[in-house]
Design goal:
The chain is an alpha+beta fold. Helices cover about 35% and strands about 25% of the residues. The strands form 6 sheets. Strands 1, 2, 11, 12, 13, 14 and 20 form a 7-stranded mixed beta sheet that branches. Strands 7-6-16-17-18-15-19 form a 7-stranded mixed beta sheet. A hairpin with a 4-residue loop joins strand 13 and strand 14. Helix 5 crosses helix 8. The protein is globular and about 70 Å long. The protein starts with a strand and ends in a 13-residue tail after the last helix.
């Protein structure tokens, strides 16, 4: 049984884990990263290669309000970004709606009578709002009115989460639709109708991310970013153990050391020790390995996850539609969103005479969709693509299926209290265990947010104290300083890596 040691062990080579490893390696801190995937780094942000056709697991725009994140992207991929126009539409009731909305198109599609009902419904919500909205339904109804909620939010959201909008926390709506209400949407819609190339609407001086009209993108997909990060980490001496699943985790307080057990695909075991552990693994899985009170284990068991299937179809027709993706609000089909990978980057599709689409299905591990055969899922995707009218079944000449476990942490009515309970026990008992990333913190964050949690965790470890409140990273990738003094001043006082974290000669 192999045994290795590093200053910091990192669980998961996704955006948060690799960002941590990269930042620590630059500071001379030794790391070992355990990644369960035998081939690809990047987690849900990896790029899949099927016979030369490249595609994302979900589609990942590169946009951030954090200049530190943007600078890191440029540092890792200085020559490989392209600027892409953002175009997306909503498909509902056999019609397509531009998103962000085009006012005149929306009026024509909905009809003037329905549009008037929507406005009256919104005005009613302003006079009689839900006070202290607790659910997604209540939050969106306050912002848009019941009528627009039922048309443009209810069906799609329930497809994504597999649960009623009355059972989804308002936190998710506030995080994902922050800054957008009917007035902002209408103002942007009118602006787009008059000046289609207008910049996204701002509210209180901030760009509303939902309305952003262009984004940067690696020319061959987001996996380029994480392949580059992994290569840099290895060049600086960091180890990345691919195909290694964490199967054991314990802490010796006398020695101040963590012991980790990894299991490879062939069943062989390996052991590692480290002073600190950074984990982007799902909290529910991680907590099960630790010696914690029953209350913490019960809280972890209450956390839920939504799983995800991408059915990639190769279509024998070029340029099927210009959108990057289309939201499918139509209840008659199961597909939730359709990606057009050539519109993300022309280099994603190797043959100019073909298209490659990604039909996305949201499910729970073990349900009917998840357990369906690849052949059945490919047949379903072909039928639904034809039903929507984007391509015929005969034009779908090839395809593959990719299943992604625990793609989305679920924001139900109990998740927040459960996470707080777990945090309290971990911080009291294991201060050298650091949670980062989407599943590591059970926060539905974007790629740049996950990266920021990795950056700040690395800074805390290098400093030897919690200068930054990593849990303060919010939906805009901003963060709060843990102390009263400015974080930059605090970092200036860190002159060198603490002795225990210096790389061994």
């Amino acid at each position: 049984m192999k045994r290795e040691h590093a200053d910091v062990a990192i669980i998961g080579a996704g955006p948060a884990g690799l960002t941590s490893a990269y930042q620590l390696a630059k500071a001379g801190v030794s790391t070992i990263t355990l990644e369960a995937d035998p081939v690809r780094v990047g987690g849900i942000s990896r790029t899949v290669d099927y016979k030369g056709f490249l595609f994302d697991i979900g589609g990942h725009r590169f946009f951030s309000k954090s200049q530190e994140i943007v600078a890191l992207w440029d540092e890792l991929l200085p020559d490989d970004f392209i600027e892409r126009p953002r175009m997306s539409r909503i498909y509902y009731n056999d019609r397509f709606y531009s998103y962000p909305l085009n006012a005149f198109e929306a009026l024509n599609n909905l009809g003037y009578a329905e549009s008037v009902h929507c406005v009256l419904s919104f005005l009613k919500s302003q006079v009689f709002p839900h006070h202290d909205p607790a659910t997604f339904h209540q939050w969106v109804a306050n912002q848009f009115g019941e009528r627009l909620f039922s048309i443009f939010f209810k069906t799609y959201t329930e497809k994504v989460w597999g649960m009623s909008c009355d059972d989804i926390s308002a936190d998710w709506a506030a995080q994902r639709i922050k800054g957008l209400d009917l007035w902002s949407a209408m103002a942007n819609a009118l602006r787009n109708s008059i000046r289609p190339q207008a910049v996204a609407e701002k509210k209180d001086g901030e760009v509303i991310k939902t309305l952003i009209q262009s984004f940067r993108y690696p020319r061959k997909g987001p996996g380029m970013m994480w392949d580059a990060a992994a290569r840099r980490v290895r060049e600086m001496g960091g180890a990345i153990e691919m195909g290694t699943t964490l199967t054991g985790l314990s802490h010796d307080p006398r020695r101040g050391l963590w012991s980790l057990e990894g299991t490879r695909a062939d069943g062989s075991k390996t052991r590692y020790t480290a002073h600190d552990v950074i984990s982007s693994a799902p909290i529910r899985e991680l907590i099960g390995m630790l010696d914690l009170p029953a209350e913490a284990h019960a809280a972890a068991e209450r956390l839920k996850y939504r799983d995800f299937i991408t059915v990639a179809l190769v279509v024998d027709r070029p340029d099927l539609f210009p959108d990057n993706w289309i939201y499918i609000h139509e209840p008659k089909v199961k597909v939730g969103r359709i990606q057009n990978f050539r519109s993300w980057s022309p280099e994603m599709v190797p043959d100019a005479s073909l298209s490659c689409l990604g039909l996305e299905y949201f499910c729970f591990e073990g349900d009917g969709l998840w357990t369906a055969t690849d052949e059945d899922l490919l047949a379903l995707a072909r039928r639904e693509l034809a039903e929507i009218g984007l391509a015929s079944e005969a034009e779908c000449v090839d395809g593959c299926v990719v299943r992604q476990k625990k793609a989305y942490p679920v924001y139900d009515e109990t998740y927040k209290a459960s996470v707080e309970t777990i945090r309290g026990h971990l911080e009291a008992r294991y201060p050298s265990l650091h949670l980062v990333g989407r599943n590591g913190m059970h926060k539905y964050n974007n790629q740049d947010h996950a990266m920021m949690t990795g950056i700040l965790t690395a800074k805390n470890i290098i400093a030897g104290e919690p200068i930054y409140d990593v849990w303060g990273v919010n939906e805009d990738a901003e963060y709060h300083e843990a102390g009263e003094s400015g974080a930059e001043e605090a970092l200036k006082s860190v002159r060198m890596v603490p002795e225990r974290l210096r790389r061994s000669a």
